[in-house]
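During the second year of the project, the team shifted from modelling isolated chains to modelling whole assemblies. The rationale, set out in the original proposal, was that interfaces cannot be judged from single-chain predictions alone. As a representative example for this report, we include one of the complexes processed in the last quarter. Its constituent sequences, exactly as entered into the pipeline, are reproduced here:
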Amino acid sequence: MSFIWSDSMREDYWAHGYLNIQGILPPSLRRDLRREAAKGRERTRHDHGPQAPRVHQIGEYAEHIDFQPFRDYAELPELCDAVERLFGPGAKPTGEIEKIGILIEPKEHSWVHGWHRDGQVEVPPESHDDPEVNGALWERFTTRHIYNQVNCALYRDSSLWLVPGSHAQPDGPGQIQTSYTDRCPSKDEGQPEEEFEEICLDHCRSFPGNPIQIHQEPGDYLIYRNAAWHCAYIVSHQPRATLHHNPAVPGKSKFKYDWMAIRKRARERSRQGPSASTP
Ligand SMILES: [Fe+2]
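Output from the structure prediction step:
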């Protein structure tokens, strides 16, 4: 059945922070994209090893990957129509073709990325209570033409977990970043895969705020507010090739806070350590 837009989808997106547009990629396009994604997966593993999490950008492999299916994807009329209905005139499913990434499955063992909000993850966790950092972040988080991200699944993909509504809510009790910290599980040498899978799953399920696991079938175009709390648990036993990029959403904003300067100061304070400001 072909995709049919409903205006409640727009309301859902802004209320819950995600929208999975089901089955919008036709089978022939999925087939062409899978073929090119496989080339990217192979090159990336060759360059970055068996646990490589993604083809960073397909532009890196311009000599090996045929971009035409990605152009067809970017220009797919039903998808262009849905994205314009969601964001308004001039919005497009993706920005530059060369910048499309592809999320892939690990070859050796499963892994979990950990909980985080994009943006917030750019500053050290000890600065997350800083009013200036929060002022700058929330000014950006509430700006609708930024912090939109796409995962378009070419195979079944249930890797992403998200706390619905958290894109518009301050951090709740216990909502503390685990990505890039020692709170994020990592596999011990010799640990059985099945044992580690349990630990990863528990890490996803136990985060405060009633997180959900988002299930995508091949051809589903998921768009989400990456300011929301989210986490990825990627299993090695399921093929994965999920296009990962931002949509192109027109918009201008004049920010009161200079995020880049605030981010730099927060990082410098962290490097100095807590004792540096203690008399
Ligand atoms: Fe993220």
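The pocket of fe (ii) ion is lined by residues 116, 118, 226, 230 (CB under 6 Å). DSSP finds seven helices and ten strands in the chain.
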